[in-house]
Each structure stands twice: as structure tokens, then as C-alpha cells.
Give the backbone structure.
Amino acid sequence: MKDLFGKALLDYQNGNYTEDIITSTNISDADELPIPYLFRSFSEMPKLEQKALQLSKGKVLDVGSGAGSHSLYLQEKNIAVQAIDISKGAIEVCKKRGVIKAEVKDLLKETETFDTILLLMNGTGIFQELNHVVTYLKHLKSILNSGGQILIDSSDIKYMYEDEDGGFWMDTTANYYGELDYFLSYKGEDEKPMKWLYLDFNTLLTACTSVGLKCELITEGDHFDYLAKLSL
């Protein structure tokens, strides 16, 4: 990885903001991801994120922390939080913004245990593919304290395959429809394409049941998105 995401965050943090990140997928056209949005305050966050932060308690792990907006809010509430991200630039920004505990780390390498684990901004994306979901859920279960909770959000993107007549054009011989190829570019450079997973709630529920996790729908957003709570 070139860590273009981290580079963009650092540029913004250091006052060198001139353009936004461009993202696209194999089923959607290029779209701008405004970098200021990644530095948003609590009041600017979607209601699903606000709800997840309000439910957070105990020792918290903020997975895929990005610029650290969630971690900073929790710190202000005197909640102990550990931010992790695979982007070196993102973690550097977290530290510059005042996140006390921030580390470059892959979720599957995390060994500490937590009372709340946050996976927000399509938290299931980190699973990459449907056949990786059980591996990640088993690991999350192993680092969750008794009485703890995993708060995760995603969207059912079936609507993206709907045609004007209300029918669906999904290839039934292809992989699960929420598995996407994700492309990112910044300042004329292209990042290595990555896999990104959107998971409908029922599929998440089935996977959780298979590994002995309870899965509860907490709230739904305005556009096929939802927040779920997983527990032992």
C-alpha cells in the first residue's frame, strides 16, 4: 500500500488541503470523499455513529480509527480508548490530534481484551470478503471481555443492483453481492485496489450465530444502513 489515505489525512492536518480523495467500486462511479468529513465532530456524525459512541463503555478499541474523531470524542468523556489502523499516516494524525493511545496495527494482530470494540463507517468492510467473516468474528470474540460488546455498522447494498422496473440484475453465479472491489486515488496517484465488504444484517446475524455471538439490531439509518451490537 502507498497509504494515500494516510497521506491525505496528513496533508489536511498539516494545512496542505487542496483536493479530496476519489473513490470508486466495481459497481459505482468515481465519487469524492471530502477529507474534512474525516475530521468531523460528534455533532457532524451520522446518527448511527453517535449512537455507537453513546453506548461505548469500559475499555474501548477503535478499529480503523482513521483521523481519530471517534477516539477523541470518547477521550473527552473520560473513556479509555485504544485506536488502531493499518494506515501509518492515519495513526500519525491521531497522535497529532491528541489521541493518547494510537497504534499501527491489523485487527487480527490485536491481543489485548476490551469491553467495547468499535467498527464504524461500514465496519464490516475490514472483513473484505464473505468467507473471511467467521475468522474475524472469532478473533473479535477472543478479545472481548465478559459482558462486553462489539458495535458494528454496515449497509445492505442490494438497492445498488435494482433497475428502473424494480427488478435486480445481480449475477446469481457470482460472489455475495456485498463484496466489492474498492479503488482509491489521491492527487493523481492510484492506491492498490482492495476488497471491501458490505454485509446485510441477516447475513451478519447468521455468521454471528455460527461462532456463538449474539447479534442484536440497535438502530437503522436513513439509507439501508444499520448498527448492530454483538455480545457473548
In short: Residues 130 and 176 are 7 Å apart (CA to CA).
